[in-house]
Amino acid sequence: MPSGYWIGGNTLYLNCNTDYAYRMVYFSGVPSLSASSTQNWLVVANPNVYLYASLLEAAAYMQDDDRIPIWRSGYENAMDALRRQDDYARYSPTPR
Which of 4, 9, 49, 82 could in theory staple to 15 by disulfide, Cβ–Cβ 3.0 to 4.6 A? Predict the structure, then answer.
């Protein structure tokens, strides 16, 4: 078993002297969107997160909009679904 690790650039180094192969699962952040990169894993898997977050951000420019609680609820529901998916991926009871 490795006793530690360090990161150099884009490489993860394990502190061990073995010839074993290790399989790693990691969770990356959300890549930014741009004109040339219009999709990322979050847009594909959970587009409602972007939709409701955008509506809530736009609410700052709307005055006395009765739909804000609906958008907030939609955003919270989308984030809860995303957290459940993340928890399942990280802590699933099945062996990996």
Answer: 4
